[in-house]
Amino acid sequence: MIAIPQTYIEDPDFNNDIDRLPPQNIEAEESILGGILIDPNALSRVKDWLKPEHFYIGAHKDIYQACIRLDKKGLPTDLIGVTSYLTDHDLLARIGGRNKLATLIDRTVSAVNIDSLARLVITKYLCREVIKRCNRATQLAYSPDQNITELLTLIRNQITEITDTPLAPTKEEYQRQRHDQLLSAVTNIYTTCPEPSFRYFRLHELAKERSVTTSYLENLYLKSLVAKCSELLTYEQLKELAGSTVREWLINGLVPKSTTILLAADGGIGKTKFAYGVSKVLIQGTQFGKFITTGKKRKILYYQGDESPGDMVQALEFLGYSESDIGKYVRARFGWSAENMPALITDLQEFQPDFVVIDSLSTANKYSSYQESQMEYARPILEMTGLATQYKTTFLIIHHTNRSGDVRGTTAIRNAVSEVWTLTKDNSQTATPYDRILEINKSRSRSSGKKYRLMFTPEDLKFTFLGEELEQGCSAAEEAAKDGLLEFFNKNRNIKFTAKELAHRLGRSDGYVRHCLGEIAADGLISVDRRPGQAYLYFLALEEPHDHPTITPDHPSKIPETVAETGLEPESEPCIMEYSITPRSPHDHPTITPDDHPIDQDTASDTAEGDRLSTEISEKFPEPDKDNLDFEHSDDHLCPEALPDNDSGGDREGDRGVIVADRDDHPPAAPEPPPLPPKTEIVEGQVYWSYSLCKWVKVVKRFPSKKKADVHVAGDPFNKPRLLWSDLWLEPPPLRIGEEVEVIEGQHKGQRLLVSSINGDDTVWLKKPPSRNGYSIPLSNNGQPYKLHQLKRG
After folding, report:
1. Which of 99, 631, 688, 783 has its CA at a distance of 20 to 30 angstroms from the CA of residue 239?
2. CA distance 525 to 486
3. Secondary structure letter of residue 369 according to DSSP
């Protein structure tokens, strides 16, 4: 025998406290039984979660068991009833006779604390079980023939039985704990086990452990997907949960963010190719007709079940997908079904796609035991709806229509998604075999019922956008006005405009422009920032503002383009943009001052140059003066102040009057100093100067993918805006036009005024905030501009 040094031998403590009684509380057990005997309602408070085996004393187990059985028969559990039951079953002598029952009543005052006493008894029982099971595990560990896998499984199961024992003060909480434990186990199996056969095996094993059926577990999981409900939220919590009051899009008016879309069409219409084309627009960051993307290089995930890999590769090459795009921004799976939902969750976590195409719902449900007419058939869509919100992605699910042109199958399919598109052939007499109609059949993000004419070209598999199917009463001139507004917004991305300002710039009446803005905003083609008591602000979001080309007054293309190329809408009618002319004199139209546009800290930046459209349009649309299409620079969109003089009625009454330009004798404004270069890195916890807020802020959370950060504003504990990284500076930059300053020395000492213009010698001219009629009074320091040391910013 080899001697092993003592220092190399494990020396655990094998001593057992054999001289101590197991954990118990006899007084609590007696009080519970006495309370049941004197209070007929006491048993109902504990019978669902306090079991006879939880009692330590054998006589107490028999008495409690007798009470339970009497209650099931609807008989009273008082002293007479319990005594009679024990006598009939030859148990009275075993529990100590009538004296034992009388003693229980004698030692009990009331049953008011029976819930807490039951919890104490269960706690002692669990401690006894831990000791007993650990001793059993110790004996098994000493056995030489014990299989280690079986041993560990047995120990795990025994410990799980203990840890899953609910400790609840009320029946409802006890049931809630059991429900949550079972649902957590089922959800874990469904979301982490990618192999369908093994997942079913695990479900079957769980069903046997919990004495339920596998079908019961499946229905429990389905019900959890249907009926998810948040806690009761305050308004502040609601705003934080929403993130933004403005609807976010991948393609404005067509593809919302974080949602589910159902594309339904008959066979042979080209729905898969249409999905490929929409995805390519998302990668390129272009547009499809009047539907303009909010960014470029979106990641696309294809789950293909209806096409072979060869057909898919051929389609992508025909549509012009580049190899670099496919390699970096496109991923694909074949043969996927809803039974492989864990694989989808893994892909969402690792690839983080913006857009997921499921082709098709029928293929995804090919192994489902349910028919299309059953509600359970829509279960994968309900799961995707939750995943869309959780992983900030959008699902496009391809499905088929029935003979009447509606979505095939149960109405639960239609109800489970947020958007429904239908793609059909145009069967009118003037249509060609390649004409298609895209209808927004249902939408929670925009107006529904709108139809758009497309043309499918089988040779290159492309869809060309031909325009919207106009409703009765909608004129071509109105559509041209809307197209002009869209073109204007596209050239001024992320810059917010009021309806009144747009009316002034485009030379149309306020009511007409407001009507057009309302129409295109309802279709989701532009975004609207609605704030109480302020004018509505209209803009077109761009999540990559630095990649957008410089604003120019070039005319839009007249050539219809396809979904596989740029997708620009054909111009059949002249748009407002083409008939813009410059004023004949500086006084023809008042200049828009910097006060017109407050900055939105979340969705729209304020770094773009002011737009160049100061226009006057006649009702007959005169020919444009092509020699005067270059406009002088104006300092629009540079002031961070909110609109101080709006009525409370929203956009209908809230647009301000156009601000009149300063008089000709006012000293000319020098060009604004160029902004400092933006930083490339932002650090959480660091304090920066916000260029737009003109205040110090502290970064609390970074969003590197969006180049944005949530900040706390100095002096304002409730405001936590989301700012662009380029808006944050280590030191305050120079003053800018439209910034509010306080005069600390000079003629207007103590007043808070706005910077009107900045001179090259670091002196500035000031003005008062605009009055009710929109007029800003220019001010000076006794005829001279103010110097920087005479002003205090903020």
Report:
1. 688
2. 8
3. S
- Tens-digit pLDDT profile for residues 492-546: 999 999 998 898 887 788 889 999 999 999 999 999 998 888 889 999 999 864 3
- Residue 442's alpha-carbon distances to 260, 512, 519, in angstroms, are 12, 28, 17
Q: Which of 76, 95, 94 is nearest to 29 (CA)?
A: 95
Residue 133 neighbours by CB under 8 Å, 6+ apart: 155, 158, 159, 162
Return the pLDDT at 678. Answer: 46
> For the CA atoms of the chain, what is the radius of gyration?
36
Report how far residue 370's alpha carbon sits from residue 196's, in angstroms, rounded to the nearest whole number: 16
DSSP 384-417: HHHHHHHHT-EEEEEEEB-TTSSBSS-HHHHHHS
Q: CA separation (Å) from 254 to 260, 266, 282, 394?
A: 12, 21, 11, 12
Which of 465, 523, 468 lies closest to 274, judged by CA? 465
DSSP character string of 176-224: HHHHHHHHHHHHHHHHH---HHHHHHHHHHHHHHTT--HHHHHHHHHHH
Distance CA 256, CA 283 (A): 15
Give the integer Cα–Cα distance in Å for 162 and 126: 7
Q: Report phi then psi at 394, rounded to 5.
A: -120, 135
| For the chain, the helix, strand and coil percentages under 3-state DSSP, each to the nearest 5 | 35, 15, 45
**Residue 736 to residues 141, 322, 723, 754, 761: CA-CA distances in angstroms?**
78, 44, 18, 10, 14
Question: What are the structure tokens assigned to 547, written together?
Answer: 């990649």
Residue appearing with tokens 């944005």: 708
Residue 471's Cβ-side half-sphere holds a number of Cα atoms within 13 Å equal to: 6
Q: Which two tokens stand for residue 567?
A: 């997708």
Contacts of 721 (CB under 8 A, 6+ apart): 601, 602, 693, 710, 711, 713
Predicted TM-score (pTM) of this structure: 0.53
Contact partners, residue 317, CB within 8 Å, separation at least 6 = none
Within 13 Å and on the Cβ side, how many CA atoms surround 710? Answer: 9
Specify the length of the chain in residues.
Answer: 794
Backbone angles phi, psi at 440, to 5 degrees: -80, 90
Q: Which of 736, 722, 707, 704 is nearest to 600 (CA)?
A: 722
Alpha carbon distances (Å) from 391 to 177, 224, 598? 28, 19, 32
- Which residue is it, tokens 């145009």? 426
Question: pLDDT by residue (tens digit) across 85-103?
Answer: 999 999 999 999 999 999 9
3-state secondary structure 248-264: CEEECCCEECCCEEEEE
62 Cβ contact partners less than 8 Å away, ≥ 6 residues apart: 52, 86, 91, 94, 95
Burial of 3 (0-12, 13-18, 19+ CB in 10 A): exposed
Structure tokens at 607: 């770094």
Of 420, 419, 437, nearest in space to 428 by CA: 437
Q: List, for residues 615-648, the tens digit of each pLDDT value.
A: 333 333 333 333 332 323 333 333 333 333 333 3
- Which stretches in the chain have pLDDT values below 50? 1-14, 545-562, 564-679
pLDDT of residue 20: 77
Identify any residues that bridge with 423 across adjacent strands, giving them in sequence order. 265, 438
Query: Cβ atoms within 10 A of the Cβ of 206, count?
Result: 17
The DSSP code sequence of 268-328 is TS-HHHHHHHHHHHHHHT-EEBTEEBS-S---EEEEESSS-HHHHHHHHHHTT--HHHHHH
**What is the pLDDT, as a whole number, of residue 651?**
42
Measured N-to-C along each axis, helices 476-490 and 499-506 cross at an angle, to the nearest 10 degrees, of: 110
As separate numbers, helices (DSSP H) first and strands (DSSP E) second, the chain gives 22, 26
User: Beta strand 330-334 with 300-304: parallel, antiparallel or unpaired?
Assistant: parallel
- In this structure, are strands 255-256 and 249-251 parallel, antiparallel, or unpaired? antiparallel
